[in-house]
Design goal:
This protein is of the alpha+beta class. It has 13 helices and twelve strands. Bound molecules: thymidine-5'-triphosphate and magnesium ion. The site of magnesium ion has 4 residues, from strand 1.
């Protein structure tokens, strides 16, 4: 029986939009989004809660958002500011624990099992973190507290925005019974629909299926479904000192169905990947190139290929073009998301973490501004 952990999941509320309102109080109370311009096929990165009431949400075309909410103000993102705020969040987190796993700029898991502040109460620690973020950064974050990562993430969403919610170990069996399977990380529309056809809508329903059935229908992921249905998740909080991969991806406002257009997008992804990889290239070298394609029906495929010794640079566009051209016909449907990535090896020998490419990737749902 593994030791029970105390995990906190922190997620800032309407992050980019909240930072913008904080820095420009004139924006308080009005529907606001951060994103790209409607006249340039821009996409909404996020919207504040006033705008969400109109149905505006992340990854939506800015033009569509303006149709739903004509008074919506869309402002361009200031990524440097968001990165700086994120570093400030982490500064506060580090006063409680060094076991921090960032998922994105505004989201992180904290393992506070060994923190002895507040008599070791994870709920009181989370409350204190929220208090300090509010006092020092004038932003709100929601917090979820639970014995594992899966439930902590569900919990932070439970009372959002500006919420805190604890699932104590003894509450887990009762809590999961009514929990919709759509709340499980990794259960997207396709899996949810497949489960619905099997009569499964909640984790309680899911518990009625045998491990054998689940593995038969979902392969390796079946084991994971079997566990999380019972509130079991053994994944440790992974500090991100070492990584196995790096990737960038984009969800498009309009699906792409022509190869030349995909090639253009891949080239843009490669530029961004080069920037991001450049920051860690002194510590890692790439071993494989990876392309990910999500089709309009949310099915997806990935294709990876080892980087040989033939001498071409890792970011040779021709190679990535060929990977896309090979992978796309597998689904041969319009494409809603493209991703480009690299599998990595540390230059110095060291332990690799469990982070896998695209899985639980914080960029999964992110759209380009
Ligand atoms: P989220 O935490 O998913 O969203 P949020 O913080 O705006 O709102 P909330 O947590 O209250 O529901 O994402 C964090 C930031 O990441 C968000 O402010 C903007 C960016 N983002 C994108 O750029 N594109 C996306 O598709 C998503 C989901 C987020
Ligand atoms: Mg958030």
């Amino acid at each position: 029986m593994p030791q029970l952990r105390k995990i906190i999941h922190i997620d800032a509320d309407s992050f980019y939009a909240s930072v913008e309102t904080r820095d420009n109080p004139e924006l308080v109370g009005r529907p606001l989004a951060v994103g790209g311009r409607a006249d340039r096929r821009g996409v909404i990165a996020t919207a504040n809660y006033e705008a969400r009431r109109f149905g505006v949400h992340s990854a939506m075309a800015a033009s569509r958002a303006l149709t739903l909410c004509p008074q919506l103000l869309i402002i361009p993102p200031r990524f440097e500011v968001y990165r700086a705020v994120s570093a400030q969040f982490h500064g506060i987190f580090r006063d409680y624990t060094h076991l921090i796993e960032p998922l994105s700029l505004d989201e992180a898991f904290l393992d506070v099992t060994d923190c002895d502040q507040f008599q070791g109460s994870a709920t009181l620690i989370a409350a204190d973190i929220r208090r300090r973020v509010q006092a020092e950064l004038r932003l709100t974050v929601s917090a979820g507290i639970a014995p594992n990562k899966f439930l902590a993430k569900v919990a932070s969403d439970w009372q959002k925005p500006d919420g805190i919610f604890t699932i104590a170990p003894e509450q887990v069996p009762g809590f999961v019974l009514a929990l919709p399977v759509s709340k499980i990380n990794g259960v997207g529309r396709v899996t949810a629909e497949k489960l619905r056809r099997m009569g499964v809508q909640t984790c309680g329903d899911l518990q009625l299926l045998s491990l054998e059935t689940l593995v038969q229908r979902f392969g390796k992921y079946g084991q994971r479904l079997h566990d999380v249905a019972r509130g079991i998740d053994q994944r440790q909080v992974q500090t991100s000192r070492l990584r196995k991969s790096i990737s960038v991806e984009r969800t498009y406002a309009q699906d792409i169905d022509l190869m030349p257009a995909m090639i253009v997008q891949v080239d843009e992804l490669l530029l961004e990947l080069a920037t991001r990889f450049g920051k860690i290239a002194d510590r890692y070298f790439p071993t494989k190139r990876v392309i990910k394609i999500k089709y309009s029906d949310f099915t997806q495929t990935t294709l990876e290929e080892a980087i040989g010794d033939s001498g071409e640079p890792w970011n040779d566009p021709a190679v990535f073009h060929r990977l896309v051209a090979t992978a796309w016909p597998r689904g041969a449907k319009p494409v809603r998301l493209l991703g480009a990535g690299l599998r990595l090896q540390p230059r110095r020998a060291g332990e690799l973490d469990q982070m896998s490419l695209f899985e639980d990737d914080p960029l999964e749902a992110q759209a380009g501004p």
